Amino acid sequence: MSLHIVEEANRCLQCRRPLCQEGCPVHTPIPEVIRLFREHDLETAGAILFENNPMSAICSIVCNHGSQCEGHCVQGRRGNPIHFSSIEAYVSESYLGRDMHRIVASKAAPNGRAAAVVGSGPAGMVVAIRLALAGCEVTMFEQKPKIGGVLEYGIPDFRLPKSYVERYRELLVSLGVRIRTATTIGGALKIEDLLRDGYDAVFVGTGAWRARTLGIRGQARGNVFFGIDYLVNPDDCETGRNVAVIGVGNVAMDVARTALRKGARHVTLFSNWGGVSASSDEVEFAELDGAQIEYGLSVVAVDEGGPVFKRSILAEDGSFAGMGDETVHFDADTTIFCVSQVPKNKLLLTTRGLEATDGGTLRVDENGMTTVPGVFGAGDVVTGPKTVVHAVAGAKLAADGMLRYMGISGS
Ligand code: SF4
């Protein structure tokens, strides 16, 4: 591993216009980090990565590098791109492990401001870390028993070991963040209660946890799950040997690979067009694990024996152009729907003045502030389902907006 990443770092051309950095949604200063790595200055490299992206250790594992940093690297034009994700994983992991005390020591003196962070996924973690480092008193509220959001309950542990979430929990606690799990804001407590109780600003990063339904017959049957719910606790879901997965995005790939690890013998994913929306890496892993993909089938119902499809009519480019008449029945013990998610609407229903877009996501301005003064948002609840690094980008913007709103200088 170390030999491999040293070789990779030595191949870097230190481009004056680093396309790798342009391809990264949070513009990680990749050449600088590689230079410091070559100079054996892991501490500074780790500090730069963490300052730019507190979730760097996680993004180095779960990002779609092939379409971001590595997909843009000039070395990829002639051969293999610099495998920066391996370098980033090494540097960030060791920084979090070895130098966590330095992060904690860099915390500013208390500034007298208090903030509530609702939701503890990547966006909530980034905001909590940034505000705590700026000297705010931060309380994090999480509906589920453990923090982490999609990192704990959405990404399977064979892709992201749960020890990473634990590492971040330790960091948050060390930074003085108070964590209230199993507490729903929008239930017994509302955002108005948070503002009444002295929080100067509130961050909402509650994700997109409501499965999108297709409105077809059979989705309420006992042999059906929604992928986002299935991933929360797959051990409690009895799927049988034959599993049909409706959808071909990254969640669908995670569901397929999880089902195969939990005892399913045959897992088939269904695309209603001629392609997939998941990243190529995830598709390759799913196929390597034994999943099969069927194309051009549009689900129209689920019955006791499994999903029922109509064969799709495809345009020349493979896109969906309609449904034909032919009906296809597929035998499956369980059908799992993975056709996207939307935010739950608890906060919208319980917070006066909080507005959503037509798509059901939180409406925010250029500072990440919602339509309620002092209440900010980022992550999937604002963008709809996206990746961890996109949540980080939004969370950085919202954290800066919150600091400005609270009148904290330097922000
Ligand atoms: Fe190095 Fe590739 Fe980035 Fe150039 S584009 S600085 S070679 S990682």
Write out key terms for the chains shown.
single chain; 411 residues; alpha/beta; Fumarate Reductase Iron-sulfur Protein, Chain B, domain 2; FAD/NAD(P)-binding domain; 3 domains; five-stranded parallel sheet; 19 helices; 15 strands; 17% strand; globular; binds iron/sulfur cluster
Strands ordered across the widest β-sheet = 3-2-1-4-15
Distance from first to last alpha carbon: 39 Å
| Share of residues in strands | 15-25%
CATH architecture classification of the largest domain: 3-Layer(bba) Sandwich
Average pLDDT figure: 96
CATH class of the largest domain: Alpha Beta
Shape: globular
Q: How many structural domains can be distinguished in the coordinates?
A: 3
Bound molecules: iron/sulfur cluster
**Could you give a short account of the major beta sheet?**
5 strands, parallel
Name the CATH superfamily classification of the largest domain: FAD/NAD(P)-binding domain
Number of strands: 15
Oligomer: single chain
Uncertain residue segments: none
Structural class: alpha/beta
Which value, in Å, is the CA radius of gyration?
A: 22 Å
Total helical segments: 19
Protein name: NAD(P)-binding protein
Domain Dihydroprymidine dehydrogenase: 5-94
InterPro entries: DPD_II, FAD/NAD-bd_sf, FAD/NAD-binding_dom, Helical_ferredxn
Pfam families: Fer4_20 (PF14691), Pyr_redox_2 (PF07992)
Short description:
The chain has helices at 2-11, 19-22, 30-38, 42-52, 56-62, 69-72, 75-78, 84-98, 100-105, 122-133, 150-153, 163-174, 191-196, 227-230, 250-261, 280-289, 346-350, 380-383, 388-405; strands at 114-118, 137-141, 178-180, 201-204, 210-211, 224-226, 242-246, 266-270, 292-294, 297-303, 306-314, 320-329, 334-337, 341-342, 375-377.
